[in-house]
Write a structure and sequence with these properties.
With 358 residues, this protein is α/β, with parallel strands linked by helices. The chain has two domains: 2-184 and 343-357, Glycogen Phosphorylase B (Rossmann fold), CATH 3.40.50; 198-341, Rossmann fold (3-Layer(aba) Sandwich), CATH 3.40.50. 42% of the residues lie in helices and 17% in strands. The chain has 13 helices and 14 strands. The strands form two sheets. It has an eight-stranded mixed beta sheet, with helices on both faces. The N and C termini lie close together (11 Å).
Length: 358
């Protein structure tokens, strides 16, 4: 079977290029899955934007084809040419049996139309609990993109949800069903070692992630060391500067800015507790990075995991973070939960059932 990931922004993650500051959750998942399928005998391709890489590149058994630069072409007209035209050409060039797209975007509609026209199969995988709600406008700014996305959801051959909440909202909004397959994660082969002595926060700094809550938590737990990792969101540079200025005044907070995925992995090796302060999520890769290492998570969002500590106030956040810091048995339960639900072999088996059904 030949599987192609339509993943425009995944090249920086798949290649591990530290010079390109992009580490999106959907891109991390697609890179993990592409490597996993390639390692288990499938032919795997990926279509990415042009970041300066060769026209064709091979990374860990995954053949990458580029289509165009993000800013190529004339404003407004570039939507059709060169974006859609070069993507269509790349999909024809790849010639896969199944095309896979993850995260709400216009590309879902383009992929579905291509597969219908050429007799191929298509899969869309949700990446957030907001992907299937009626108003997806917060993620897609243009009516054109929202129309293409909804048309794609109606026409793809199969849909994968991360959890039952996404499956329920898909049924309610689009009258379609999904196969629930948990997100996947594989531990790096080498760990950094050293003491696990810090509370870690990782994410792009924008309003939905609420990084200011991490700083408030650090103020309530001055005896603990905190590390805040993440670069600015394109739409919220002022928030990033405000958080950076406040963090600089707090002796127990280290703010790193953007870090490549490989360096973030090393920080997870040193974490004692992971904190998430988001308004909403799907299944954050950061939770899997933590649980695989036996690191408990304390969060303001519920991801339907029995090992997770869910809180609704800063007081609860401080209480539960301190309790998790001092409870080694919780970390062991997290590791066991990861092995049962998110380890590569478990996720691979579920996906191969979906592929066979198509």
């Amino acid at each position: 079977m030949h599987l192609c990931f339509v993943a425009p922004r995944a090249w920086p993650v798949l290649s591990g290029d530290p010079a390109i500051p992009i580490v999106g959750g959907a891109e991390v998942q697609q890179s993990l899955l592409a490597r996993l399928f390639a390692a288990h005998g499938h032919r795997v391709s990926m279509i990415c934007l042009d970041y300066g890489q060769p026209q064709r590149a091979r990374v860990d058994g995954v053949e990458v084809v580029k289509f165009c630069r993000m800013k190529a072409g004339l404003p407004v007209l570039r939507f059709l040419h060169p974006r859609v035209t070069s993507m269509w050409r790349a999909m024809r060039e790849v010639g896969a049996d199944i095309y896979y797209c993850r995260s709400a975007s216009m590309w879902v509609g383009v992929l579905a139309e291509f597969c219908r026209r050429y007799g191929r199969r298509s899969i869309y995988a949700g990446a957030s609990n907001k992907d299937f709600v009626p108003d997806v406008g917060g993620q897609l700014a243009y009516a054109r993109d929202r129309w293409l996305y909804r048309r794609g959801i109606a026409r793809v051959d199969g849909i994968v949800a991360q959890n039952e909440e996404q499956r329920a909202s898909l049924r309610a909004t689009h009258r379609r069903d999904a196969v629930v397959i948990p997100s996947c994660y594989a531990l790096p082969k080498r760990a950094s070692g050293g003491a696990r002595d810090r509370i870690l926060w990782v994410g792009t700094l924008h309003a939905g992630k609420r990084p200011e809550l991490l700083l408030e938590l650090a103020g309530r737990l001055p005896h603990r060391r905190f590390v805040l990792v993440g670069g600015p969101s394109a739409g919220a540079p002022a928030l990033y500067e405000r958080v950076r200025a406040q963090a600089a005044t707090m002796p127990n907070v280290e703010m790193t800015g953007f870090l490549p995925l490989a360096e973030v992995e090393l920080l997870f090796d040193r974490a004692r507790v992971f904190v998430n302060t988001s308004v909403y999520e799907g299944m954050p890769n950061t939770f899997l990075q933590a649980w695989a290492r036996g690191v408990p998570t304390v969060a303001t969002v519920d991801v339907e995991a029995p090992v997770q500590r869910v809180v609704s106030s800063i007081e609860q956040l401080a209480e539960q973070a301190e309790m998790a810091f001092n409870d080694p048995s919780l970390g062991e339960r997290c590791r066991e939960y990861y092995e049962r639900n998110h380890a590569p072999a478990h996720v691979l088996a579920r996906y191969e059932q979906v592929f066979a059904s198509l």
